[in-house]
What does this fold into?
Amino acid sequence: MGLADAAKRLLLGRKLRSAQQNETLLSKKIALPVFASDALSSVAYAPDEIFLVLAAAGVSAYTFTWPVGIAVAVVMLAVVASYRQNVQAYTSGGGDYEVTTTNLGSGAGLVVGSALLVNYVLTVAVSISAAAQYAASAVEPLRGHQTVVAVAAVLLLMAVNLRGVRESGTVFAVPTYLFMLAVLGMAAWGFGQLLTGGLPQADSASLQLVVEDDFVGGLGSAAFVFLLLRAFSSGCAALTGVEAISNGVPAFRKPKGKNAATTLLLLGTIAVTMAMSIIVLANEMNVRFVEEPTENLRYADGSAVGEDYHQDPVIGQLAAGIFEGFEPGFLFVTTATGVILVLAANTAYNGFPVLGSILAQHGYLPRQLDTRGDRLAFSNGIVVLAGMAVVLIVSFDAEVTRLIQLYIVGVFVSFTASQSGMVRHWNRLLQDENDPAVRRRMKRSRAINAFGLSVTGLVLVVVLVTKFTQGAWIAVTAMAAIFFVMRAIRGHYDRVNEELAIDEYDSLLPSRVHAIVLVSRLHKPAVRALAYARASRPNTLEAITVSLDDERTEALTREWEERGIPVPLKVLSSPYRETTRPLVRYVRGIRRESPRDIVAVYIPEYVVGHWWEQVLHNQAALRLKGVLLFTPGVMVTSVPYQLASSEVAVKRAERERHAPGEVRRGTAPPKPPPVDPAGPSEPVVNRGIPVKEGRASRRGDRAGDR
It folds into this structure.
């Protein structure tokens, strides 16, 4: 095993056979942290966004945080109930894309596919950026370096996911459950303090909010209604990740649909409980959270907080107050939150590659995305997702507030299209179903999906209206770009398939085969190429050399005649000392004379054992092949010749490993004789080119004359 292979095995683990894929299936207790970590972790920043948006209208607007939270919870439960129907009806893993394509057509399905791809990338960027902010609040030396921390976290997640779904799920299960314990435990302790009258105020409770200049009107104005809608659309970030379970159904153990539906129910219940607990406690503790602390926060005396003020996230402020005097409790909550925000991106790492694989199968993405790696994961999709997320994080400086504006547009596009497709799905099945019990069950499912359609459609409109100018237009533009790129890729594959389809003319043999062997000087590689060309029995065979130096050309011609090689040698003149152009011109000339003929070009090449030797050899051959490959009717064949340096690599790979002491005791098998890379050392006459033979014709060695 080479050094590169050893490093790869250390990073990824041992290879898995295709037959071992069933061993990677997940139980519900592992599937919950794998596929639901995104939605669960959104409670770490979705409440923050609600408070942040409403802060523009002043402290009095915070009284509307709990109605907005309830509205988000209703949407969450409606979507979860709807998707429980989806995962049991479609278990192949296509999720929203499959539902929409099957029921609404390929065009609508492609819109959903592009929306989901964008959303998965944003999931990684937003989650990791939020984690970097939490890390900066807990560890002071990290402040100002959030972008570097975020990029490192993305690469770490990529490496873990390359090891496979099951291993990544096992690694991430414990931190996810610890996060649930931390938030629910903090909430329980906080509500206990609230009931006993001992709930403290947040550190920011004494600060005053400055109403933003662009907010005009009171709480009953149209401007405030629009602000409420913005807060609601930002809070709906809590719903991201719900669709990932529908894409990951194949990773569940049997019964797949039922286990996925159960996991969805657990996800919805836990996420709503955690989010509402945070919103209520934040109101009771009078948390202040704004977009620009230095501009929108003031001390009680009216002075600005200053540039040195660091604003902790809402959960951080709650933990600091609830666990006042108990530092381990604060550290446990903030650490668990930061870790889960990193792991939340794991949902996208499981959803994006699977969706990319399905789109690749349908010809909308490069087929490399449908290739499983050593650990049966879609490695190429994982790497592509990490690369795109890094670009976003660096472009937006890992700022959650800027990234969140691009978020959730794609997911609600997929929600709405999927629920519309499910309604049509049930309508189609009801036309052929006569069993009353089954019809009642289908009608109930249709009603649930119809309610989900109305809710998600309304939220989509709100999101587009309130967020479009805030940055959502970037996400919409990206979706449109990906849509047209995927259409173009599918068009390319369709054209290639049509061009490669076998027709009646493909069964006909070419009229003649003209074989050409390129010779620079007479040596073993050239002799081997000549022998190989003769063995293929072409209609005509000739050797070609380009005259760059008259003396060398005369020496080659003289040696050719002295050895009596029965293949005619043709010399091409090159007054400008070019090698490639005269050869290409000659080959194309043969094609013009006989368009139905095939020209086979044999090129001797060296096989070397070191990378730096490749730079010293084969450059002319590479250039020539690069040109001839684009010439119709021309076949290029490389005839390898192994140099001594490559023999070392061959021997190293074939070396037998003996037990300790075996050689000393004389029990080891005899060492095989050294292998000549050029083959047995018999004379040229036995290598396929006899020295004496009848004269070849002027056009070459014809098969009929032999």
